[in-house]
Write a structure and sequence with these properties.
Elements (H helix, E strand, L loop, with lengths): L13 H15 L22 E5 L3 H6 L4 H4 L5 E5 H7 L7 H14 L14 H9 L2
Antiparallel strand pairs: 1-2
Helix pairs in contact: 5-6
């Protein structure tokens, strides 16, 4: 069995990816995930009818395309799907970056001065627009 740097799937930037993933999860946890459909059925792989949190634009894609963790961890990029669907999806994306940015902009326009429905953080459209336009 091939291990370590000799393995064909070895990546030298594993530490950087893990750090990025941690930042995305930190952003993800700022949102009230219970507001998403399917959150009440959250569970482990193999559990009948269990759902898992999915980042539509994958964390993997975000890392390798230098996308701000705030975008990848945004509520507009999150959904609960069956554990089987989540496992099958892996690192693929079910949304494009331009589609996600449009959803975030629309979300922020809908609640410019109030706390967004289902969110624990206050929307700041000017700040959101700046981090979206920088990428």
């Amino acid at each position: 069995m091939t291990r370590g740097s000799a393995h064909p799937n070895w990546r030298d930037d594993k530490e950087g990816y893990e750090e990025y993933k941690s930042k995305v999860y930190s952003e993800t946890q700022k949102w009230d995930l219970h507001s998403l459909e399917g959150a009440d059925m959250h569970g482990l792989c193999g559990t009948p009818a269990a759902t898992q949190l999915d980042h539509k634009l994958s964390i993997y894609y975000g890392y390798f395309h230098n996308i701000e963790p705030k975008i990848v961890g945004h509520i507009c990029n999150l959904q609960f799907v069956s554990w089987k669907e989540n496992r099958a999806k892996g690192t693929k994306c079910s949304i494009s970056l331009s589609q996600l940015v449009a959803k975030i902009e629309k979300y922020n326009e809908a609640s410019p001065t109030t706390i967004p429905k289902g969110s624990r953080i206050q929307a700041n459209p000017k700040r959101a627009a700046s981090f979206i336009s920088d990428n």
